[in-house]
């Protein structure tokens, strides 16, 4: 039997899928205009995750040092009693929800704990810094339709490794190249960009704003400016004055890009025709990540490539922009106007200093111990409160739990999901029953709410789905029939250069901050980048045996002094972990590349030695600004 359903994993492609339960296969829906009949290997083998022997399929309760199986009534009665006790001071309840589970019904835990007045977290481990940068520039979060890249003359791919993060954008780019579109990629290297690029420029990690400023400098010197474009900006004189005071050679030196390469990037933007710009999420995972994004956007704007077909600056759109909330339909509880919030990327320290102390923690859709920096501090801090983890695997976060509640996973529950890349909403229809005693998150929270001394009551599932679709205007009947529906948004974002600010004008950045100097004790830069085979920490335990690998260039200063026959350690100011060193030829000589998501319990979790730090905008996490060294011990 084939079921039309959809991927709910944390990926912008948001594929519509066909699941054949008899043949145990998954493939892209050929009728979906964006999915086009194929999907990535992470989605194609998801049934292996559902069937895994490592999966937790019954509630577990901690008794002493052991997590022991129990039934749902026992588990939920225990959780309800602890939650009732904590409700006397709602700020002592902490809710942490991640993007491991998204959708209209995926709002359930957020809506539930908001009604209890619980504390939550702020800050972002993902894309909020780049989002804030785009909002400051454009006044709204939008970009051209992804298919518009086929109308481009050239594409500047600024930091996206499409071989590991978006197979459909990669397919579009390959199709564009077949039509004669040329692609220039800019990154620290060590990635898959040569596979789909005509030219590659290697840049010092985190310094993209200087290369963008150098390109702007060349536009100014050439006088190659469109007066109409400049009239659609609020503060062009401020940017012009800033760039006028900068030296082209010094900007190139700051990003360690040869002047000839910077001139080539300028020519790609200045040449006739339209140039689309793809911005990778890695750009904003530095101390000045927001500034990186803003200066790249400025190049796209000054060159006349915003608001036109074949142009555009693609960072992302909100995956929830087509979906509404049903929180107002909940009965019981009382949402607090100013609930307490803890900084996510410094969660260990925040939990230790919380006053009043956190007494109850609920974590769902997020292997938070694994994903946040200083992971050991977070694991230690979670030993004090009563901690409930909704997860199907005994990962780093689940091991900290007093109660583990097994959720139904993708293909086992119904929902509707949007995309941060395209404008379709997809129906996630159940293709297989939940395994064992696993239950949908929505059902678990509805059951828990009914058990509270002062109940919190959800509407039924169908009512929530219909309410969540009102914003989009999509009919649920259409979703049932087709499995997807398109929501109408302009094909070209910011057409006629009308932007989202109240005055309709674009905003340029007005400051360019210097890059912090290299620490002589930790002269290298650790980049914990996306994995090609697994999504974040959804890595089978069997794949995490042995010592984790890092990659460096043969030009890296550590390469010539390390003894490969002896143990090698990756060392930061927060700690050290044993690694295996491999080489890759096209990587920046000061970069150390590591695939993220490995678990601490196997010695694969790099976040255990990454120090919490905050980006320049929206409290993002500056993962890639972590300095390090490699040494023998």
Write up this protein.
With 633 residues, this protein is α/β, with parallel strands linked by helices. Helix content is 27%, strand content 18%. It has a six-stranded mixed sheet, with helices on one face. Strand 17 (415-417) and strand 18 form a beta hairpin. The model has no long low-confidence stretch (mean pLDDT 97).
* Helix content percent band: 25-40%
Quickly give the structural class: alpha/beta
Instruction: Note the beta-strand portion.
Output: 15-25%
Strand order of the largest sheet: 5-4-16-15-14-6
Low-confidence stretches: none
User: Mind summarizing the main beta sheet?
Assistant: 6 strands, mixed
Taking all residues together, what is the mean pLDDT? 97
Number of strands: 25
Count of discrete alpha- or pi-helical segments spanning 4 or more residues: 19
- So what's the overall shape? globular
Distance between the termini: 56 Å
